Amino acid sequence: MTDWLHHLLILPVLLPLAVAAVLIPIDERERTMKGAIGFASTLVVFIVTMILMRLAAAGEGSLPAGGVYQLGNWPAPFGIVLVLDRLSALMLCLASGLALAAQVYSMARWHTAGHHFHSLFQLLVAGLNGAFLTGDLFNLFVFFEMMLAASYGLLLHGSGPLRVKAGLHYVAINLAASSLFLIGVSLIYGATGTLSMADLATKLATLAPESRRLVETGAAVLGVAFLVKAGMWPLSFWLPAAYAAATPPVAAVSAILTKVGIYVILRLHMLVFGTAAGASAGFGQEWLLTGGMLTIAFGTIGVLASQAMGRLAAYSVLVSSGTLLAAIGLGRPEMLAGALLYLVSSTLTIAAFFLLIELVERGRDAGADVLAVTMEAYGDFDDDEEEEEVGVAIPGTMAILGLCFCLCAILLSGLPPLSGFIAKFALLRGLFDLPEANPASAISAADWIYVALVILSGLAAMIAMNRVGIRTFWASIEGTIPRVVVIEITPVAVLLAACIFLSFQARPAMRYMQATADDLLAPLVLSERVLSAPRAGGE
Amino acid sequence: MELILSAGIGALAASGVYLLLRPRTYQVIIGLSLLSYAVNLFIFSMGRLRVNAPPVLDPGGAGDLWRYTDPVPQALVLTAIVIGFAMTALFLVVLLASRGFTGTDHVDGREPPRGD
User: Mutating which of A138, A164, A222 best tests the B interface, going by the most B Cβ atoms within 10 A?
Assistant: First the structure.
């Protein structure tokens, strides 16, 4: 029984990998079957990650072998391990849930736009899950590349000049970032002689000063590679174009791709440069803080400036990234739980929004946006047309789409009562939750700027969503009703329902996040668990 | 030897970065290749430079660590080369697709107005 549970840990990587391989030789005309196999695989992965999260929530004791899976049955500093803890379980669950929604959505029409959609999709899922699970830096690179390679294919899915142009930039930038990743990893290896994250955390405190400088340099270079992925301000100019050009299901899973960057930064920052790191504790924090704040500002301006909904959503990704990066950079332990809840809530919202955009825009033609801009600039000039539309009832489809859009707007801007508000509230409350034992840690100017930026970004999202919503649902130039299939609206509804569920169940959710944050704040416990895990089969 | 290697890595990386910032897709792909050569050599050098030292234990040989060179960077470099090679091939396809769609090899898909 425990043996069986133990092997569940590798399933989220192995199953999609195997299914991707199986799907390749199947003829493209059998799309429905390919889709069904892919869906079954993603569903199984989702269920497995749910089980893993339940196990992780119950604490390390209930995890088989302490949540450590030794791939070659070699103990940790020598062999590569997969590590499950609360944070990785949370990310796994979020990623596979999103993937499931996006996959269902794609089966209505988008998977017909090109070849091998489902294989690439499974590879992406495998890469994502691997990146969340691995406890080894170089293994992380391999999973990262796997995920990126699949994302290149998926971004180009559907082809067309716009996608190829955005794809070209995306691939070039990520290849350069991968080079930085390798430089960082090898610098860290050269200085410490280990690639295992757990081992690194224990070694850093006792490192000689000259090696420490090298490790810090390596970590900085590595950080840049992840910040490119997370979309921190000066490194994020590729993101809006790429995400807006991607097909909707791909854009929806891309919402989690930026969070992989954030996850790794959070993980490494807490594990390697946490409280146990000696002189290196909190390394790079001020960079994360400044960069994160600039990202929020840039994203907010972008949200206000974007005319097309796709770009609005892409800039919302940046705002979300910036909020999280700056929260990590502030280095307040009390904020971590709120930040994690914000991560989950914002990812679900943005993914739902990406899926929704295409449904809403289906009813409008490409020129509508340009026309709308002209209308805004020169005032309404089609009063006569408006009169013709009087008396046309809002049809059912538009009502559902409108409702979903409203929910997205509320969640994105962080208005009560939904989870967007709860998450932001928890985040900011953590900021003002000063430890009584240490009154010296007063609220600094940076904290105030952060609060202002977070609130302003919410306001900007509200304004932008209102403007787009009014233009789309109330002042639609032509009255075509988009034809929406049930399996397209269901994923959107489910993702939004998950956010609503998160709002009602905020208490248990916050308890989980708090436990996760406590885990992160005690990095050596995890290291100890990984390094002392017994080999399978006795000994 | 250290000097030669570091100068080589530096030259490769510098020309790689320069080409990466050029406007033609062909220059970008050559730049990325040069950059990945530099990175591969760099990973290799992180195991410290040793001459005439095997990375694997020879059967019956003495188990002294000083006789051997660090095998890990060599394994890493192998993986990095394979992945880098595959990515370059993928980039090449995107490059050709872009050329096909836009009729130009400029990275932005259109010629700058001054006719560079």
Answer: A164
